[in-house]
Structure formats: C-alpha cells, structure tokens
Amino acid sequence: MKAKITLKDIARELEVSISTVSKALKNSEEISRDTKEKVQAFAKLYNYKPNNIAISLKNKRTKNIGVVIPDIVHHFFTTVIRGIEKYANARGYNVIVCLSEESFDKEVINMEMLANGSIDGFIMSLSSETQEKGDFNHLKEVTEQGIPVVLFDRITNEVDCDKVIIDDELGAYMATKKFIEQGKKKIALITTDDYLSVSKARTSGYRKALEESSLGVDESRILKLPSMEMDEKRIKDFLDSQELDAVLCVNEIFAVYSMGLAQRKGLKIPEDISFIGFTDGLLSKYANPSLTVVSQHGEKMGEVSAKMLIDKVESEEEEETYQTKILEPTLVIRDSIFH
Amino acid sequence: MKAKITLKDIARELEVSISTVSKALKNSEEISRDTKEKVQAFAKLYNYKPNNIAISLKNKRTKNIGVVIPDIVHHFFTTVIRGIEKYANARGYNVIVCLSEESFDKEVINMEMLANGSIDGFIMSLSSETQEKGDFNHLKEVTEQGIPVVLFDRITNEVDCDKVIIDDELGAYMATKKFIEQGKKKIALITTDDYLSVSKARTSGYRKALEESSLGVDESRILKLPSMEMDEKRIKDFLDSQELDAVLCVNEIFAVYSMGLAQRKGLKIPEDISFIGFTDGLLSKYANPSLTVVSQHGEKMGEVSAKMLIDKVESEEEEETYQTKILEPTLVIRDSIFH
DNA sequence: AAGTACAGCGAAAACGGTTTCGTGTTGATA
DNA sequence: TATCAACACGAAACCGTTTTCGCTGTACTT
Asked: How far apart are CA A191 and CA A200, in angstroms?
C-alpha cells in the first residue's frame, strides 16, 4: 500500500521548500526551469495529486454540488440528476445526492449536513411534506449564509433564489386542448392535492382549456390524490364510477395504470378512451399502447439548474438578483391518443 | 447575509482561546462548568456548526462515499443508489454519485477526481467498456492507496476487494426452468455479449437449465446484443425469424418491448408465448400484461454494499481480507407467464 | 514554609495546500 | 566601487479544526 504523496514529501526528497514545490507544479515564473523540471518529473513519477480537501479548506470552495430531491426512483428526477451530473462534471464539479423521501425532517437534516462546508450550492426539489407544511426556514437559513440555491420543479415563491420549472399549466392546457380537438367530451384529471406546486399548475391548465371550450369543468371528473404515491383502489373507484372518454394524469404511472384498467374493461384506446400523462419515461414509451405524454425535459432542466447554480457560485459579484427559468413542455404524441 | 461563525470568532468574542472553545463544545472535563456554559450558550445562539472540510482535513475522513455507476436511468441502478443512500445516511455518510455512462474514460476520470481526498471509499459497478477492455488499473491503483472499494453487480475477479452480486446464473436457471415446467419448448434468450459479467452468468444459467432437461440448447435461439442499449431492429428481426413459445431477457426493457412485438403479431401472452425479464422495475409492474421478472433486489444490494464499505472504512485493522456476498434472486410471478 | 496535586486554560503543532512577502545572490550599470 | 534590478527561492501566514503538552495559580499536605 503506497500512501498518497504530499507536497511536503516532495520537498523533503528534493531538498527544497514546500512553497517552491507548490509553485513549480503550477509552472510559476518565479521558479527556475531546472527546478521546475525536477519537481514536475518527481511529481509525475510518484503520481502526485493535490489533496482536494486541503484545497477546499484554503479556497473555501469544494467543487461539490448538493442535490436534494424527494425520490430517485421516479424517472423524472433521475433524468434531472443525469442532466445535473453531466453538466456539473463538465465544469469540474461533483454531485452529492441526498434523498428527502418526501419528508420535511429528512430534507432539513440533509441540508444541514451539507451546508457546513461540504458543498458550494444546492439544487433542490421540495418534498411534498415541505410544500404541505409551507415551512421554508431551512432554505432561508442557507440562502442567508450566502449559499446559492436553485429550486426546480417543486418550488416555492417564499424563498428568494433561482428557479427552474416547466410551464406546467401550459402543459396541461395543451394536453386538454388536444383531447378537446379530437372530439373528447368527458375529460377527467387524475392529480394530487394543490399543495404540490406542479399539481396546482396542471390542474389550472386543465381547467383553463375546458373553460375556454364549450365543455366547462365538471368537478366530479377531477380526482385529487393525497400524494404522488400510487393508490390503485382510489383510481379504480374513480374510473369505475363514471363514463369517460379521456383522462389526463399528472404522472405516467397513474396514466399507465389507468390504461390497464380501461383495457380490462374492454375499452379500446384511443377510440373509446384516450390517455395523456406527464413525464416522458420508459413506462410511457414501452407501455401498450404507448402513452402520449407532456414531456418535462428533465435532463434539460438539470442542465439549466446546474448552469445557473455554478454560474452563481463562480460569479464574484454579490448581486442579489434571482431569475426563474420557465422551460416549455412538449407533447410527445404516441398511441394512447389519435394521431 | 450572516456568514458562518468559526471557533476563532467565538474565542475572540468570549476572550478565551480557540482550544478552550473547542474543548468546551465537546464538553471536555478540562474546562470549568462556567466557561463551558458560556461557550455553549454563545455557540447555540449564533448557531455554530463545525466546518466539515476542516474536520475532514484533520481526521483524514470525509464521511463521503463515492458511487460510480454506468447509468442512472436504469431502474436497477436507481434502486441500488437508494439503498446505498438510505444506509449511508443513517450512518452519517453522504453519497457522491458519478456516472460513467458505460465509458471507460469517464470511469477513470471520475475515480481520479474523487480519489484525492473527496471520499473515504468507492461503491462501483463497472462500465461495459471497462468490462470489455478488461483494464482495471484504475481500480487497482485506488485499492493500493488503501481506499476501500466495493464492487456490485458488474464485477471483476481481477481486483481484490469486496463484492456484492446476485446469483445471476441461478436467476436465469430458475426462470428457464419455470418455462420448461410450464411445457414451453422453444425458449429463447435475449442477452448481451459475454464480456458483461452478468450476461455471461445469465446465459450460463439458461444453458444449464436447458441442458438438464431433454430440450437442449439451440444456439439460434440466443440473441447476443452488443450492449444493454435498446436495439429495436435486431430484436424484431430475431423474434420474426423463428417460432418461439418463451423468451427470457436480461433486462425488463428488452422483455417489455418483445411482448409488444408479439402482441402486435396477434400472439396471446402467456398462452402462445411467455416472457420473463430481469430487473423488477416499474416497467415490469405496469406493463400489459405485467411482466414476470427475476428480481435483483437492488435496494438490498445497495444496503449491503454500503454496509460492507463503511464497516471497512471504519475498521481499524488493516486486514486484507475480502468477501463476496451473493444475494439470492427471486422470481416475481406476474401475468406474462402462467400462474 | 516548602512541596505537591490538580483544576483550568492557552500555545502550538498538525492536517495539505496557496500565497504574500521577504531575502540572498548574481550580474549589469553608473 | 557602490547601486540596483532581476532572479530564485524560503519563511510564514492562512483556511478551521483537534489535540498534546506545558504553564499558572490555588489549595492542600506535612
């Protein structure tokens, strides 16, 4: 086991000072050609690599980004992480992932763990419990300490920071309008309670499209589940309780599950009933029939978030100006609707 | 913006030395009741939290784990991360995730980035390129430096370290046997080239089950794709080229896609043709029909890996003894086969 | 009165770097 | 010959902790 070599080791071996070694390795003008060559050769030979921790302590920069998300098994968050990771890595940053598992307490604990020097900034999507509680003090504390935060997807307006979202209202509006254009009359919405910022916006887009049409909103056609967790019984009861010819769901799991129920009842998709979901995941692509979705462009969202964060981290000025980027959703047409 | 407070700040305010503050906060016997109370009260008031980086530098322990995996969008890896994250967090560790994207170079670069002090140990699954090349020097270097490594799922025997796998051969054997028991005769396998350790083992289990039966292996019923990437054309051509009554696939995507093709040909599942895949993801659960799979217990695998790694990191002894844990796969029976 | 014990605290080194600010040597210049 | 700039390097501070060791003062012992 050959331990890591340090500047001190090189200095001792070559009988020069630590400062000289440090400068030589950085190709400083101050050091003679001769010495530089000697030091660099030695460093290469022993595979010297500076200790990141020491550099972090000195620079007060860790080159780590903290990502705190509710869940990692949902395809959307996975793609966001991938986007963040790719972009961050290209700029020399590492990504520390923490899962809040939709719990307020875990979100707080995770942030506290990371906020004491481990990271240069946060990229987060709020846990449902946090959005429900409306308590954002942990975020405020962090921003007050000067640690930059970028909120994506599940955001709040009560915290001053950069934000990245897709236009969820528009997405739902587009989807609902598509149904209407295709002659669907009884259009349902399976969503979650309004405390989730995204669900609220999507519900609003759904309403808007219906209100603009001659159809109007029928409240009994809206199912609000308490969370994004699958609740097979409630969805089944809801779909069994009435006749529908189109269903919009706030995620792909609800949609694919609903399609299965419809098929078991002998309904033809999309003729008898059409479906559109949110999130363009594997499930949508490989479902049978494949599911039309409102794509949230998770990877793009991750990239944009990472760019905003790193730009802020590396900017010298302490401008307290925050922006909210709104990405456009797109409808990915597949076999669960006419086309 | 109130910046973080340090020991030095407290010392200055309270007119004591830094050492005294440090000790007082740790409730050292050395410090008088009075002073301790004063210091602790002050620290609490100003919400003092020790700087992780400084502590890392001092202790040569970061409480960070580096996880390097080929991909994050595959359900299996996602669940493993979740298992790692949960367990590691409970023991006070953070998880730094890096994606190799199946590239040897990225794997090397990521490891190098992390190996210079950022982490206490690695949990990894090899990229396909690494397994194909058979070059494991980056792993060897790291272990030689005394950094513990745990390899999971995609492993190699050329590196001395702890390993966690499921019994892939057994999993494929169980699945194939199930087909045979259900009277299937023409059983195909869709897999990848043997350089992927898991595919090799699975192919071997498939062969074993067939050889044990009266059926025997028909090489034309084995499709070896170059990677885990979806190749719709080759799968379609393969399935179109012959008559089959059962298909085992090394992942759920291949299986679900294949089911779709069969259905479009008018075949009934599972009567005319049955399917089993690997990986118990959302896709399997919500596919139509739902897919029977060999579950790899990703979350468990993550937990076990994290436990092995952290135990090693925290153990004092430098015992160079490594173990390989083999988890049992289980067959999750769903509608794509008889039951 | 001298010695001892101990409580309570601070100085300083250490972790591994970076960076500022000298300082001694050399050769050229006036 | 005295002056000076340039060159090449080292000492030391610093980032924020922890920890060892030594010092001071008080109280107690004999």
From this structure: 9
